[in-house]
Design goal:
The chain is built from 17 helices and 30 strands. It is of the alpha/beta class.
């Protein structure tokens, strides 16, 4: 798939996009405003643009006349880029072009870091944790009548130099039949010890040569969603993956409410059964999709926060929510997956990622391992944002960590029209600086029905920079637009009128929504600042930021900095790794080197309980503004706002002089 250059007039702005992108998404990426309120479905007809040069594909729209189409007009949301383009955005008067400078800068998303199995090998980090060894054994005779298992072990030592073996009882139970099924041709499955001093476990034996069929499962047990991947241990390839909402959501959206439920009579059993049911649903899906024989799966690696891990293992988590916040355990031994209720063959071993504390769990340890910050020279800030936000700062010499409760705002929770990132959620936003009309895009390019977390961040940042809301998140009551109104004592901005939505109601952003976002971002930013202060460092010392979690791949970094969610740092230093927990689980499935390092990494991760750190509350209160009470922490933004205010005053003076003339 090639790339094309689009030039937007009269903005004199250009951007490179992929073949097949829509013009409206390119406009948003370039920071160019096009009126659009139907989310990209093509029904409002407001995103009319003129294609002056180049080729686009678009269906015939009843919103455009044949005469307009002949002139080159197209709906930006339906115009698919097929070549370099020159696109003119219709502007009603020349005065509007001077206002274009008030538009936001082009979007800057984080560089996405993808898992590279070959790189793992090149760095000398590959050490297969599970191997298969093929044997052609001589049949027993009267003179050679060794027990079946002794014969097998003897030839493993002789042919493959395998020593210090221990045998699972399940292997002894099945070996008499299996060893004779293909005339004493067998394949053994060996699980290597995490430490060299341990013993290699013989967990399975199969008839014939199945050495090319060697698989594992990696799984992230999230509070909201659970994801699983089925991995080829020879190639490193993900053969199938699938995610499901965690069934425990029915018992509460956050970990505290689930702990409370687990404390009720029979509660732990119920909530444990629900998460195992969700896991089994995913297992069934990925095994079927991959076409892998269940017998060829050797291990499942599981990573989750401390509460999710204990609930999955049916361990009562009651002490996690009570001072001094003590988990039942941070390290767990290998467990038979079937003993946990998972629908996997009896020999499959479950390996559970260790935790650091009650609120820094195995998912964060997995993210630290997967991202590689524990091997890096650079001082790195690792940030996993969800209902709870976990923060890790450090490098290969030391690591400090903390957790803070951000609330559900980043996942669309707590908002009047909040929703998770699903079809119909407003994910991108811009605003005309004169008319204050919106430009919205939804996931799936359908009519809007709500707001997701990344969309909330972008629209709040845009409105703040344009002066629509102040640093407290309050709307300017004097603006002349029907979109800002009062409803039951709460001011709000209408993002889409009801005839443009899926829900036959206006979709709005309220001041209460913005307050929830400010509290959430304040908790995260103050957590970062507190942790930096506790280790004697500041923002200027940070060399690299790694974002993990769902929102990081979509959110505009400048917008996240504008609202004070992230420290002001060069966007080129920010990397997005996606689901860090799943990445770490996958790496551990593929190489023992990572599993060997885990124990050492957890030992050197110093945990700070923010609630017991005096400076945290001071930092939190200071962060309850857009972006912060101390604008000197955001010098680039401060300079940009000052320049915009000067330009805005000049434009207002020009309007006054023109009206008087």
């Amino acid at each position: 798939m090639g790339t094309h250059t689009i030039q937007f007039l009269p903005y004199e702005t250009s951007i490179q996009v992929q073949d097949g992108d829509t013009v409206i998404r390119a406009a948003l990426e370039a920071g160019v405003h096009v009126n659009a309120s139907c989310g990209g479905e093509g029904v409002c007809g407001k995103c009319r643009v003129l294609i002056e040069e180049g080729t686009v594909e678009s269906g015939i729209s009843e919103k455009l006349s044949e005469a307009d189409r002949e002139k080159g007009y197209r709906l930006a949301c339906r115009a698919i880029v097929k070549s370099d383009l020159v696109v003119r955005i219709p502007v009603e008067s020349t005065i509007d072009t001077s206002v274009l400078k008030l538009q936001a800068a082009p979007r800057r998303t984080a560089h996405i870091s993808e898992f590279d199995f070959d790189e793992l090998k090149e760095k000398g980090l590959f050490d297969a944790p599970v191997e298969k060894k093929y044997l052609q054994l001589p049949a027993p005779t009267a003179q050679d009548n060794l027990p079946d298992i002794t014969r097998l072990i003897s030839y493993l030592k002789l042919k493959h130099d395998e020593h210090r073996l221990e045998v699972d009882l399940s292997v002894i139970r099945k070996i008499p039949e299996v060893i004779r099924q293909d005339d004493f041709k067998v394949t053994t499955t060996l699980v290597r010890p995490v430490r060299k001093v341990g013993k290699t476990r013989l967990i399975n034996v199969q008839p014939g040569d199945t050495t090319r069929q060697n698989y594992a499962i990696a799984m992230d047990i999230g509070t909201t969603t659970i994801y699983g991947q089925l991995i080829d241990l020879i190639t490193g390839e993900v053969l199938a993956e699938h995610g499901e909402f965690n069934g425990q959501i029915s018992y509460g959206e956050d970990v505290i409410s689930r702990i409370v439920f687990a404390e009720k009579p029979g509660g732990l059993e119920k909530i444990n059964a629900v998460v195992i049911e969700t896991i089994n649903k995913i297992l069934k899906k990925i095994v079927k999709e991959s076409g892998v024989e269940p017998e060829d799966i050797a291990t499942i690696t599981l990573a989750g926060n401390t509460t999710m891990t204990q609930l999955m293992l049916a361990v009562n988590p009651r002490s996690i929510r009570r001072a001094p916040y003590v988990p039942a355990a941070t390290l767990y031994p290998p467990i038979k997956a079937a003993d946990l209720g998972m629908d996997l063959v009896g020999h499959v071993t479950a390996l559970v990622y260790p935790a650091v504390s009650s609120y820094v769990g195995g998912d964060i340890v997995a993210g630290v391992m997967g991202s590689g910050i524990y091997r890096s020279e650079a001082l790195t800030l690792y940030l996993d944002v969800g209902t709870n936000a976990e923060i890790v700062i450090g490098n290969k010499e030391w690591l400090a960590c903390a957790a803070c409760s951000a609330g559900p705002a980043f996942e669309g929770g707590g908002l009047k029209f909040g929703m998770r990132a699903a079809k119909g959620a407003i994910e991108d936003f811009s605003m005309d600086p004169v008319t204050l009309e919106p430009m919205i895009l939804t996931i799936g390019n359908v009519r809007a029905k709500g707001i997701c977390g990344s969309g909330l961040i972008i629209m709040t940042a845009v409105m703040f920079e344009m002066g629509i809301i102040n640093n407290l998140g309050k709307f300017d009551r004097d603006l002349d637009t029907p979109r800002i109104r009062e409803d039951n004592g709460v001011f709000e901005y209408v993002l889409a009128w009801k005839d443009e939505t899926q829900i036959d109601r206006d979709v709005t952003l309220t001041e209460i929504d913005i307050e929830n976002l400010i509290r959430a971002k304040g908790a995260i930013y103050s957590g970062c600042m507190t942790l930096l202060t506790e280790v004697g460092m500041g923002i200027s010392d940070i060399e690299h930021i790694i974002l993990a979690g769902g929102f990081g791949s979509y959110v505009d970094l400048e917008k996240a900095i504008t609202i004070g969610l992230l420290p002001e740092i060069d966007p080129h230093k920010v990397t997005f790794i996606g689901n860090g927990s799943l990445m770490g689980a996958r790496m551990s499935s593929l190489t023992n080197r990572i599993r060997q390092d885990v124990a050492e990494v957890t030992k050197k991760m110093t945990n700070f309980e923010l609630s017991d750190t005096p400076s945290y509350m001071d930092n939190y209160v200071a962060a309850l503004f857009l972006p912060h009470t101390d604008m000197n922490q955001f010098p680039r933004l401060k300079s940009r706002l000052e320049a915009r205010n000067k330009l805005k005053l000049k434009i207002e003076d020009l309007w006054i002089s023109l009206s008087e003339a």
